[in-house]
Amino acid sequence: MDDRKALIALNDELSADEDPILLPREAGQASKAVQDFGRYQSEEPSTSAAAGRVAPHISGNNHFLDDDQPPLLGDNSLPPNVPINGSAGSSNRNINSSEPIFHLRSRTAAASTPNYESLDYEVCENTLFQDEQRKRLTERFSLRKDIIRWIIFIQIGIITALIACTIDIIIEELSERKYTFLYNSVKKNVPLSDAADGSDLLIPYLYWLLFSILPVAFGAAMVTYIEPITAGSGIPQVKSYLNGVKIPRIVRIKTLAVKAIGVITSVVGGLAGGKEGPMIHAGAVVAAGISQGKSTTFVKDFRIFKAFRDDHEKRDFVLGGGAAGVSAAFGAPIGGMLFSLEEAASFWNQNLIWRTLVASIISVFTLNIVLSAYHGLNDFTFTGLFNLGKFDTPLKFDYFELPIFMLLGVTGGLLGAAWNSLNTKINKFRKRFIPWKIGKVIEAVVVAMMGVTLACLMIYFINDCRPLGNDPTNNPVQLFCEDNEYNAVAALWFQTPEATVRSLFHDPPGSHKILTLALFTVVYYVLSCATFGLNVSLGVFIPTALVGAAWGRLLAMLTYYAFPQAEFLHPGKYALIGAAANLGGVLRMTISLSVILMETTGVETSFFFPLIIALISAKWVGDYFNEGIYDTQIQVNHVPMLTWEPLPQYKGLTAREILSSPVVCIKLRDSAHYIYQMLKKCDHNGFPVVDDVSGDRRSEGRVCGIILRSQLIVILLKSLYVENKRFWLPETSIQTFRDVYPRYPSIKSVRKLDNKINYTVDLSMFMNPSPIRVNPHDSVPRIFQIFRALGLRHLLVINNENRIAGIITRRDFIYK
Amino acid sequence: MDDRKALIALNDELSADEDPILLPREAGQASKAVQDFGRYQSEEPSTSAAAGRVAPHISGNNHFLDDDQPPLLGDNSLPPNVPINGSAGSSNRNINSSEPIFHLRSRTAAASTPNYESLDYEVCENTLFQDEQRKRLTERFSLRKDIIRWIIFIQIGIITALIACTIDIIIEELSERKYTFLYNSVKKNVPLSDAADGSDLLIPYLYWLLFSILPVAFGAAMVTYIEPITAGSGIPQVKSYLNGVKIPRIVRIKTLAVKAIGVITSVVGGLAGGKEGPMIHAGAVVAAGISQGKSTTFVKDFRIFKAFRDDHEKRDFVLGGGAAGVSAAFGAPIGGMLFSLEEAASFWNQNLIWRTLVASIISVFTLNIVLSAYHGLNDFTFTGLFNLGKFDTPLKFDYFELPIFMLLGVTGGLLGAAWNSLNTKINKFRKRFIPWKIGKVIEAVVVAMMGVTLACLMIYFINDCRPLGNDPTNNPVQLFCEDNEYNAVAALWFQTPEATVRSLFHDPPGSHKILTLALFTVVYYVLSCATFGLNVSLGVFIPTALVGAAWGRLLAMLTYYAFPQAEFLHPGKYALIGAAANLGGVLRMTISLSVILMETTGVETSFFFPLIIALISAKWVGDYFNEGIYDTQIQVNHVPMLTWEPLPQYKGLTAREILSSPVVCIKLRDSAHYIYQMLKKCDHNGFPVVDDVSGDRRSEGRVCGIILRSQLIVILLKSLYVENKRFWLPETSIQTFRDVYPRYPSIKSVRKLDNKINYTVDLSMFMNPSPIRVNPHDSVPRIFQIFRALGLRHLLVINNENRIAGIITRRDFIYK
């Protein structure tokens, strides 16, 4: 038959098409798609129809179809990879320019932008869902669901803590061995305290290089080749996820494994990073995994927690997991919960806070027990974790110090803003000039080598010897010093960054030379800036705190040098304030950071005041220049994250000006063939369902619902047609759709319709019958508020007669 | 003319009508209205029309009108005080039953329920608003608005702190004088340490009574006669306000004045209450006042901050004010902010947290400076406020104590739940049997006398003498004790409750007898229960903490008595845990309470863990029985507060089942006369604007917007008619409407239309053109989510053709 052949031809033609579940793709592939698109345009003459709002379409294919079939590809258009966009013409122009094209929704145009999709935070209340709800409306069921939810949160706390412990202990053990080995090597090779000749340092230097390169190369290779999403701290990704952006593979078990190994190797390798960010990500993965009661990776369904299998429920668990992760990373339960609220959460409610807090508490408690047992503490006294070291003498301050704290805050804000800007530039450079995978691994190794080399140079050239006895370092290296002295420069470098923060907070006054600390600050500032953005799993918290602690201490030393009578200049106190200020300048958080710093150092609650003064000043100053590092990363990666307020340039617009049209619609009863073809050809994820359609002018119908791509695919896969209703109706429920969550099959997995080409789909029981609708003249701030508050994925713009005028998605608020 | 006379008759008939700005009314008035309604029903035959969905109406009046006028009161109905309700028949039945009728929206039926209205948290984006927005879209304007917002928040912090200081200092001074006087009186009248005869105590007792009765009577009278809304702690009211319920007179300056005096008199009078709750209310009033830049009470408009004059902006300031209030009350900035978030806020966003925190910090800082200056501290060392006294030795705990803390938590949960339930019963009793104002004052006096008498009896009958020297009380009364001893019972009673909490936390072990503390616990438990709900301004925090501290310390003493080798039983520590547990049991908060307790006692951050264990256990146990005291109060007062989740009994329903219909609609161009009449006769606050109306069948029109009662009244007041458009159009802007905010005039202030009876109103530029609309088959959980997340006041239910099916307001989610 003619149309069969044509269909095959059409399919071949579209075979360049990829899996419609969109993943970030390489630039090369995308530009091929752009070329395809161009070719397509020239081959198929586009005709304009229906009030001139329809994009180029393939109505020329009409003759492929039987006469008794309604014209499949009529005016209502199946734009072949055409952006749903009011200005298809102008987008055509853009495609050939070298500028990144952000305002196009279709992946064909996404030359440099990975095409992130939204999560379905909106619950689709179709007939099937309501049927289930009615069945489960008993008191008992909802109580059971509540109890299970609590159990899951408790499990999240425990398992996150166990993972955190494991990472902690492995890092500690390996670092200990590495630095002990280096210490011994130095001892053996630099025997004389007055050896002015540096050649003896060569062997330890080479060992040091080796112990840095090996783990870093291994970690970077794992991240690059196995799971690139694990690069960085993971906080921006978790934040985007909680905002409703689908970050592919973000919450998989494989991701967790790579992240854990990646963070161990990088910290042991001596890169300027911490384990805190990755812990949050780990907590999020644990939460997403446990709450679903199944693992898609291991193809194992435990048949539990089925009621929690949707994006909405999962989101809340992931928030709890993130909080448990921070809590475990810092040993700070309130801090962890506040961190989740302040930085990560986009949606919030009282019960959620409450559950999140419990998960955090459980997490810290578990961590404390395990670590206590590991360190062999026999008395069961809870000491808190204080992983930045406890200040034993209470920190006091005077009123006249407040302006100083404020000045430190301003300094932190300036340095932080500069760091963010520099880091962004480095990462842009990196993205442009190091596209190859092996290059990314080599780059990480080079940065690691640079760190070791700079450290060695500092140790070699600076003569900073201190008497042994009151330095808390484990391996006081004698290196070029007299007997009974140790090298204070080496002490800074011969340990993990976290341990160095501890040293700067707690070392007694006079432990370092001013020159040492000044050089250390500069070197570490640059190093940390070069490190964040490498393809390794590392957080930014510890290096930022370290830089801050270094310059905080340095400033106190300088001032004390100038005014030796200033008794209040406790260097540890100023190191703490400096750390807070620098953190505030880079991360732009306030409450959670101050609470975390308080909880991890055990300072008195009254010291909250100086901390927050420094943080607030830093945030204010920093915000004047740019955004926090996490938000910057999100922007640089073109993640369509919805901020709390609409972007300023959108404030004067109306829905009409940002909507995308024409919209591909489906009739309430439509042919399976049309749906199949449409899904093959356009990659949108939501289709308005219309009624009251004259002929095939679907886009002029009256809106009666919306249906998701994933639902349509399930309908086709399971052959839920009107004609064979008697077979599937009794056993079809919302569970049929939930079973394929979260990895929906692609349209390619639907075999050709062959014998079902004339079948009909009745969407009335599958569609979401009550999508949120707005008017074209509604202002963007208003629809933004609706979109964000309800966590929508698609917002329909309708005219007064309830006919579709356009559709608005997340991207339209950002890239238009 | 005929219709003129009829109109007058009609007006007379409706003259029983009250100010449509609804205030809580006395039961008597309301039942009169119910009778009126009943009379009306019998006089006017009701006919059913338009698909049987129209309530009884007064179509019988049709003949009053001219022929050339469209039938004013046609099928579209002007229900005269008729509830907008689908089941008018059934409501008729209810009216004569003695049950309180919660499911009726109209005030006529509100026999015992004050008819709370909603606030307009939704911004009405009409043409005027958009015009203004366009003008003000400059970068400069929005920066300026941001800066002004910050200035307001800082001012809120400062002024709230100053008020808090004033209250603090006055209470302290007066209490000091009162108790010193009593102390001297005791000293004079009970000269012998072994005076077994109690007659000598009579004079101090009478003095004590006098010093209790006078202030309490004064305070209660002020609250009762001047501003009844100031009774209680104010937290439930502020919480309701932030949820979107209009609590009349809640944020007025008069309220603040009465509240301040009320709380001073009650605390000085010795009632079992604290000043903390009222401080939150005070902060809220300050915030609302400052942010508006005008005082309606003093008829003074400063012509500043005009851009913040709407419910939405005001809400955010009030949240900041509440936080500043808590912070000032406890000297706990993080605690204050968390309290606002956990207990008060219904809406939340990141920027808001950030501003709220700054307000809290500023508030604590101001308070600290002023109080330091007042107490004459010369060294400018910031010490924190610690108004529950600083624990000087760090509190430690062992793992095996955790189950004990948990048990204390469970005890707190049980006692708290019992307290809540008892208090609710007492208040119900009170409401029923003490309706008269003078009765309320007398009741407060009686409770005050009861407190003094019980205290005296305890002092008289219990012989608990302790050696002088290590008790921190100011006035150690010798009373029946040997020389060099003081009476430990008197020490508990001869100070403000706050000071007693301090004593229980910090008194050295062995300061009290077991019997003393046991009796004190019981007496104070009952007293505080009887006090909360009196017509006085008092918070519940301090008495609750006091009861908890008492039984916590008591339990530690009992256990120590049983196992004298248990060294860990530091009574102060257990008093603190007991206070936390009892607070958790009564208030059901966790995070903020633990942080507040930490901040006010200066314990180490590691002690957060036991606190939160106790609080969580208490909350879990308590939640099994009933709700927290604030939520209970809100429920008892029938405040239509929207919880975080829909009520369980609503979960299976759809919009159709809870909507109110028929709905009184207005045509896009409607006659001034119709609008005037309608406003006179029905007291709804929002009216759908319809289009495409055939004749007068308004309720069958197509929805094109919604307009508020207040807007319509302004239109009528300012004569914004189509016919005289050329006069008002140039000078009418959104400011015209904003000028009358927040006390909108009533329809009575519009003089009769007389010569403008034929004029027309065109609503297109005034109405909100994009109300949120849902379908009748949408589930209640879904529409609840929309309603709550967007802070709506009216939600229109439309059918597929965009014609009105009903309207849903706050009340429909609670009382239906």
UniProtKB/TrEMBL annotation, chains A, B:
Domain CBS: from-to ranges: 659-722, 767-816
Membrane topology: Multi-pass membrane protein
The protein's name in its UniProt record: Chloride channel protein
Compartments reported by the entry: Membrane
GO molecular function: chloride channel activity; chloride:proton antiporter activity
Disordered as annotated region, ranges: 39-95
Keyword Membrane: yes
Family: Belongs to the chloride channel (TC 2.A.49) family.
Any Pfam family the entry gives: Voltage_CLC
Keyword Transmembrane: yes
Keywords, alphabetical: CBS domain, Chloride, Ion transport, Membrane, Repeat, Transmembrane, Transmembrane helix, Transport
Transmembrane portions of the chain: 150-171, 205-226, 256-274, 317-340, 352-377, 397-420, 441-462, 514-534, 541-563, 575-598
GO biological process per UniProt: defense response to bacterium; lysosomal transport; positive regulation of phagocytosis; sensory perception of touch
One Gene Ontology term, aspect cellular component: transmembrane transporter complex
CDD domains named among the record's database cross-references: CBS_pair_voltage-gated_CLC_euk_bac (cd04591), ClC_6_like (cd03685)
